[in-house]
Design a protein that fits this description.
171 residues; 7 helices; 51% helix; elongated; Vascular_dev_regulator; GTPase binding; Dilute_dom
Amino acid sequence: IQQVFKQLFYMINAVALNNLLLRKDVCSWSTGMQLRFNISQLEEWLRGKNLQQSGAAQTLEPLIQAAQLLQLKKKTSEDAEAICSLCTSLTTQQIVKILNLYTPVNEFEERVTVAFIRDIQTHLQERNDPPQLLLDSKHMFPVLFPFNPSSITMDSIHLPASLNLEFLNKV
């Protein structure tokens, strides 16, 4: 059950983040607030079902950081440093793309300046990020089956002759 929910939450993360990276109309402060609220509801549900050890919540980390990126101030060099230290699960390319797509929804917000985006790129140039922008929504985690040893010993097993397994020898 834990592995199923980890895979499901990864798919939610990948689809939501990819939509955020491809649609200018959803890159806003209010979307960041809505995403963060919805993610907290998912995390609360995991805690309620005692699935917090499944790793499902960790698969949402890039989406959480993208939501926080949409909510942070984006003006000063200190803001750039804060964004760089906060967004460790996002690649440089993803951070820059979200900042480029950021669209103010009211008169109190401002567009992200080109100088600020360059400042971010300067701070993040040491990172060795993969050049991939979108997440692989078809990624599958390996399924792990727990090994439960049997209490029956091999000496106590009787193999019927009808199975034609004479080539097996008890040692």
